[in-house]
Amino acid sequence: MLANILIYICFSYFATAIANAVLFLTERGQMFGGWQDIIEKVYNKTQSNFLYKALGGCEDCFTMWLSIVIVYPVYTAIGIKYGFYIPKDVPTGLLLWLLMPLLTYDIKTLKNI
Questions:
Q1: Neighbouring C-beta atoms of residue 15, cutoff 10 Å
Q2: Is pLDDT at 16 greater than 70 in this prediction?
Q3: Axis crossing angle, helix 59-66 with helix 2-25, rounded to the nearest 10
């Protein structure tokens, strides 16, 4: 059980590392700097702060959405393949799914201190 918790925390840490790398690469002047122009066009067309922030306009929001949409499903797929604990009931799975963005936000905050 302790190993499963450590694996879960490691995946949350990886989410912050991946988000930092993606956000760095999408800054203006970097490899994928045009991404900022795209999300600004989306914001100007839709006037949606939600989309703008989730697509990279806000570091914390992007990190949390990345962990919800990408990292937890990867964690689940790898867990099923290699047999470490994956919740079998829906409430526990939803709890872990919703805890990952909170944990990634905490890790991101601790890394920036």
A1: 27
A2: yes
A3: 130
Residue that is written with structure tokens 């697509």 in the block? 55
Mean pLDDT (the chain) is 83
State CA 29 to chain mean position distance.
23
List, for residues 32-51, the tens digit of each pLDDT value.
888 888 888 888 888 888 88
The C-alpha R_g of the chain, in whole angstroms, comes to 16
DSSP assignments along the chain, one per residue: -HHHHHHHHHHHHHHHHHHHHHHHHTSTTSTTTHHHHHHHHHHHHH--HHHHIIIIISHHHHHHHHIIIIIHHHHHHHHHHHT-----SHHHHHHHHHHHHHHHHHHHHHHT-
Evaluate if residue 113 carries a pLDDT over 80: no
